[in-house]
Amino acid sequence: MVRDIREVTPEEHWKQFEEAWTALLSYRYLGKLSPDLDSEVERETMPLRHDMRNSTGGIMAAPLCIASPEPYWLDSQCVPAPVVMSYDILDSARDVHQVVVHRDVIHLGRSMGFSRSLTVDADDPSRVIAVSCGTGVSLGDVPEDYQKVSNPPVPVVDSPSLPPLHQVFGARRGQDGVWRLPEVTPELSSPHAALHLGPINIVLEAAATDAAAAHAGTDALQVDSWIVMFVRPGVAGPFRAEAEVVSGRSERIATQLTLRDEGRGDRVVSVARAVFRRV
């Protein structure tokens, strides 16, 4: 059972947050470190492993969304939820082993927050891998006196034989050719008991890549642009990812994506757009 942090008392809030934060798989499995929430962490970093790359060795979009979630509105400040996340990938990062995120918080208001970020090579900060921006909403206030949480990453040894991220997060392509995520669990859930942005981006990218590769006749593709809009919370599941190629007559292939909550009358959870180029 997934518990909504908004339903607990102020006295229980931070204990419930710690349970939700340390159960969530998105950041722990990918090795993402969050200095403002995690104890004994100084920089916002994430390694780039084989399972975060496409068939040509270029970086995928979903890992960048997890490395640099937008907006930069912390659980220590409110109960945040993303609305729009937008990424332009400038460098395929084939020889990059770790990224660092540099934040620029534009405005955090009563109900909406805005930020933009640069994701750069940890060994060469002048090498920008991606630029991103986004908006989000506050779903509620939180108590003061947040204490950072011990949240060490899952120990994952990088290897070409690592399982793909979609497999780790439970996404599967069914016999009907459609990608789905399972029902919401603590490992896939935000503290407010909705499907987390991590698995959302992972399953949408799997569906987008399949559709673009089928259209192009090759999987030698690199995603250049990635935009996700979060329409409603995904609270039940399974979740169905729909993908459609909408433009592919040039070197760039655009796909439209929709994620639906089959456990809530097929309502739309997220929509996205991905633009790939042939490598």
Polypeptide structure, described:
The protein has helices at 13-23, 25-30, 61-67, 165-168, 197-216, and strands at residues 45-47, 80-89, 98-108, 112-121, 124-138, 172-173, 179-181, 221-230, 239-247, 252-261, 267-278. With 279 residues, it is of the alpha+beta class. The chain has a single domain (5-143, 164-278), classed as Thiol Ester Dehydrase, Chain A, CATH 3.10.129.10. The chain has an 11-stranded antiparallel beta sheet, covered by helices on one side. It is globular, with a radius of gyration of 18 Å. It starts with 12 loop residues before the first helix and ends with a strand. The mean pLDDT is 97.
What profile does the largest beta sheet have? 11 strands, antiparallel
Low-confidence stretches: none
CATH 4th-level superfamily:
Hotdog Thioesterase
Which architecture per CATH?
A: Roll
Spatial ordering of strands, largest sheet:
1-3-4-5-2-8-11-10-9-7-6
Strand content: 25-35%
- Give the domain tally: 1
Coarse structural class: alpha+beta
Q: What's the helical proportion of residues?
A: 10-25%
Classified by CATH, the class is Alpha Beta
Q: Treating each run of at least 4 consecutive H or I residues as one helix, how many helices?
A: 5
In brief:
With 279 residues, this protein is of the alpha+beta class. 17% of the residues lie in helices and 34% in strands.
